[in-house]
Protein: GNAT family N-acetyltransferase
Amino acid sequence: MEIRKASQNDIDSLLNLNCQIGEFHYQNAPTVFAKPSSEEREFLLKAISDPDRLFLVATLQNKVCGFITATITKNEAVPFLRKEPICRIGTIVIDEQHRSTGLGKALMNKCYDWAVSSGASQIRLEVMEFNSNAQDFYAGLGFKTQSRIMCQAISS
Structure:
């Protein structure tokens, strides 16, 4: 297993992984998520080249089998929120055939190290209610529910 910075040469593998997670989310919450589309190539290429974003891949035998993205944000506007850097995980996905192999944990550990070196006070992520496997994974790494996003559909 190797964890390394993503490169533009990884784009086809990243699109495949993004499609896996995109289809899963679309099937479970079509009112929130769009079907994977051709726009994702440009989105991922832009994310890879963003110097302020962590974008790592996990490989097995030189094949990309997972990736993680994260950014550091700092509240500057809301007076009742602390003004500390926070690492926000955008996406983590492991190929369906390679789940429960330690790749996700290895990516999360590298993200943790990056967050510490970036001065972050905590790591945050959003996980959908329907994704119980991901919730269990994060709980196993010590994550706790801090808040809950709620919504109500508006019918026309």
